[in-house]
Amino acid sequence: MEGNDKRPWCAPGVEDAGPRCFGGGDDGAGGAVAGRARDRELDIGTTIRLTFLALGSRGDVQPYVALGSALAGCGYRVRIATFESFREMVARRGLDFHPVPGDAQAVFQVTAQALPAGTRNPFRMMRAIMRGYGALVDDYIRAFSSEDLFDSDAILNQLPGGLFGGDLAERLGIPYLTLSVIPLVPTRAFPLPLLASRSLGGPLNLLSYAFAERMLWVIFRPRIREFRRILGLGDPPRRFPRPGGPIVNGFSTHVVPPPPDWPGDVHVTGYWTLPEPDWEPPGALVRFIEAGDPPVFLGFGSMIPPDPGGLMETLLEAVQMAEVRAVIGRGWAGFGKSSLPDNVFAVDYAPYDWLFPRMAAVVHHGGSGTTGLALQGGVPSMVVSFAADQDYWGERTRALGCGPAPISIRRLTAGRLAEALERLVTEPALRERAQALGGRLREEDGLGSGVRVVRGYLDTIG
Fold this sequence. Notes:
By secondary structure, the chain is an alpha/beta fold. It is built from 16 helices and 14 strands.
């Protein structure tokens, strides 16, 4: 993509869908999918119902709520199947909600307790994931096999490997799309971001995807067999199946250039950001920001360190050593509950697309969405990585020239953080590159491109 071209990236030779929206009564996706719905004797009128499956933290789920809202604005009936704790976020956008038992913060708490901070050991990561998410698989099976989802006309699935969603789409005989905000499609260009942040060489890069896929399949295959039995389907294959349909990625080609060996059904649209036009910043936060030089932001979102109090002391010491002002996001760790020095302000919540452009720099945990918002904000940033793909996004930030190399939470000290803060706020080159990249990212229309891909696919299969 060049300049102001806001179309999604598609593999060479693949046509991009036109920017049409379904308004009911047309002969594109509406006629095709509604026709299949009539074949299944579903009474849905003229509205196409799209069901999203999305689990994780707020940052994991929010991009799919954003895309769902954009599709609803084009006339689709959108339902989000996710944790009960996100009911309000979904309902506030006027979308239908299908509850999945479990509280996202409680799941992450269990996972964090089983996962040593900063580890890249894939076996430990899988065990931790199974403790957190795997303990609730019975609830997932009940939620995703519910007849309340049987009026769906297409499944859009965020769960890795097509878990549950591919089987549900097969049972209903409806279209299936894979959604992701992390590059998970196998390639020789770089390894699976969940396992490594730098290239291992072409063959090993490819092997990393196969290895993770095999581990996931060994763990989940018995439960997928059970899920398929409930749906009235046969046993799953011996290896991880890849459901048909496009893979739609909610990140930017400016941040992750698509490798040449990705197949033609992979699309990169730009980021899916959820606008919050009704949000009003607290007066105290505005006054603090405006009271002096722009502060730095330090926050780790849904990450729960083993010693939150000790990490808070490290942050405060680094801020004083670097002689900067700071806004600290409390996050799930609950930072900043005790008294703070005058140059530090703690905030429960503020939309990052509002907050980050007002900062001198951003230090964050490296979630995909947070990384995108930090880069869109046009200020230097750096990742303190805890697990999974976070080190990958920290390396991308460094490679793009927008910040220092990431620091693993295991290696974080007040001195190292203070040195990084000084670089972030004093090096003109970092700020210039961050401003330039932020401008390009803000020109993209990730939601519009995502809608075009979804609509285009539903059109073509009609």
